[in-house]
């Protein structure tokens, strides 16, 4: 059964001890996607994966 | 000079109090009238009470005895995250709505020692964690120039109180721009001093490596005087501005700016050139990383402060702050390390820029005050969250810890615009000197 990004986020939130209502999870998912996009872009610019050239 | 005490600068007030042409009681009453008339602006969470008038009466007696205190009889408002002995300190939250500290924050002690009247506790974004000041527990703060608009935040109440003539000056705090943004959007001066120049003991924390305390004032001279008292330092040495080198920050970071804001900043840089300063363009591409770097750093650090409450009582937070704190609980160590590497590079790049110039100059905010409730600003069709846009030009200097001052530089569409001046480590003196010059040239 495919696992969605929402499911993954819910699992991570539970593991972090957060108690989220369904609506909270919806709001958090929007913020999480924006956060990941920014961080992934930052990582690419500042700290590229040293193994990237081995592909 | 104005006859209305509520419109006087703090330095003029100090002179008038010492010359006994103005009494502290008269001043306190004038401010309280303004607070009452402007209640809908929601500047204060805890307005000054009867104690302030008693303090004013005692100050009047001391002034009559020719006592000298740098701020004797001067009413100063505090953002409601400065601990005040015996006075409720909410941090703009529901969680701390009944917290009455048993001691004062270090800077409050310094104000009292200088003879200041502690003049109420001002509104802020909940726990200072946002820049719109739409506080769900203590009221949505409104811009005094246009109440349909946000005053900016998180020290929005302090900016309203200063611009609205509700205090002589106010203290704020600045983690991503929270002094400078409301100063720019409301039309007053805001100083974020060098990181560590002012003690944070007793200031409710937001991000431990990013937090700064500082003043919001009517004039640059007021900011200099208040900084001098707060820092416990002698007055900065006089600075000759002629011949100083000013770098106007250019590049992608500063291309998304409202035309009216850009025009005011360009006018200010032109005025400096005509006044004999050397003005040149500076490019710092690494500043483009600041919003992401700030976001990761602050999400993690704020969640550390709120680790227990956000897990045990998430409903005690407003919706926006709750999501930010929950997101912060998911920030990985790896993400935080990436952000600190970026931060190091940003600091180095800014330091390199200072090898060629004395002062950096850019807009404080890329836009004038947004309408309350606006979530997104569009730049040629490209959407940017309002909170991200507002911190885009200020957060680099929380990451670097360098002193930064926002000075009013005119109006765009009838709304205030602030220009930001950034100096080298502990060089508040030159920042304030150039700020004062801009202020003079704008008159």
Give a short synopsis of this structure.
With 55 residues, chain A is mostly helical. Chain A contains 2 helices and no strands.
What does this structure look like?
The complex is a heterodimer of chains A (55) and B (443). Chain A contains two helices and no strands. With 55 residues, chain A is mainly alpha-helical. The termini of chain A are far apart. By secondary structure, chain B is of the alpha/beta class. Chain B is built from 15 helices and 15 strands. Chain B has an eleven-stranded mixed β-sheet with strand order 1-3-2-6-8-7-14-15-11-9-10, sandwiched between helices. A two-stranded antiparallel ribbon of chain B has the order 4-5. A two-stranded antiparallel ribbon of chain B has the order 12-13. In chain B, strand 12 (376-379) and strand 13 (382-385) form a beta hairpin. The longest helix of chain B has 21 residues, at 333-353. The mean pLDDT of chain B is 96. At the A-B interface, helix 1 and helix 2 of A face helix 9, helix 11 and helix 12 of B.
């Amino acid at each position: 059964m495919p696992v969605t990004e929402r499911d993954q986020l819910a699992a991570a939130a539970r593991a972090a001890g957060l108690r989220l209502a369904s609506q909270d999870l919806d709001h958090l998912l929007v913020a999480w996607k924006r956060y990941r996009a920014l961080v992934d872009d930052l990582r690419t610019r500042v700290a590229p994966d040293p193994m990237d050239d081995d592909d | 000079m104005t006859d209305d005490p509520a419109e006087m600068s703090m330095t003029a007030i100090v002179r008038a109090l010492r010359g006994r042409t103005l009494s502290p009681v008269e001043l306190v009453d004038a401010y309280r009238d303004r607070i009452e008339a402007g209640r809908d602006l929601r500047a204060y969470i805890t307005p000054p009470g009867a104690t302030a008038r008693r303090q004013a009466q005692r100050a009047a007696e001391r002034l009559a005895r020719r006592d000298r205190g740098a701020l004797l009889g001067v009413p100063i408002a505090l953002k409601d995250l400065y601990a005040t002995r015996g006075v409720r300190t909410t941090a703009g939250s529901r969680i701390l709505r009944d917290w009455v500290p048993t001691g004062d924050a270090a800077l409050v002690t310094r104000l009292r020692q200088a003879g200041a009247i502690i003049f109420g506790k001002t509104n802020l974004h909940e726990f200072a964690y946002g820049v719109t000041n739409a506080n769900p527990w203590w009221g949505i703060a409104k811009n005094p120039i246009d109440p349909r608009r946000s005053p900016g935040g998180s020290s929005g109440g302090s900016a309203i109180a200063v611009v609205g003539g509700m205090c002589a000056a106010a203290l704020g705090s600045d983690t991503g721009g929270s002094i400078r943004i409301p100063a720019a959007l409301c039309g007053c001066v805001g100083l974020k001093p060098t990181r560590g120049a002012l003690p944070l003991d007793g200031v409710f924390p937001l991000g431990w490596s990013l937090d700064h305390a500082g003043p919001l004032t009517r004039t640059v001279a007021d900011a200099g005087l208040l900084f001098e008292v707060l820092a416990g330092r002698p007055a900065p040495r006089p600075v000759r501005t002629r011949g100083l080198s000013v770098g106007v920050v250019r590049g992608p970071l500063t291309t998304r700016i409202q035309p009216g804001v850009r025009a005011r900043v360009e006018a200010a840089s032109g005025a400096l050139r005509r006044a004999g300063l050397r003005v040149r363009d500076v490019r710092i591409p690494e500043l483009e990383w600041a919003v992401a770097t700030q976001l990761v750093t602050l999400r993690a650090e704020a969640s550390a402060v709120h680790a227990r409450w956000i897990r045990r009582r998430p409903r005690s937070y407003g919706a926006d702050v709750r999501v930010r704190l929950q997101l912060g609980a998911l920030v990985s160590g790896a993400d935080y390390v990436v952000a600190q590497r970026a931060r190091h590079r940003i600091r180095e790049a800014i330091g390199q820029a200072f090898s060629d110039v004395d002062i950096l100059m850019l807009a404080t905010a890329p836009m004038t005050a947004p309408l309350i409730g606006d979530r997104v600003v569009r730049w040629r069709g490209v959407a940017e969250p309002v909170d991200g846009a507002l911190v885009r030009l200020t957060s680099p200097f929380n990451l670097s810890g360098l002193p930064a001052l926002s000075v009013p530089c005119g109006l765009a569409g009838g709304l205030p615009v602030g220009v930001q001046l950034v100096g080298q480590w502990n060089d508040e003196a030159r920042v304030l000197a150039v700020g004062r010059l801009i202020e003079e040239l704008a008159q």
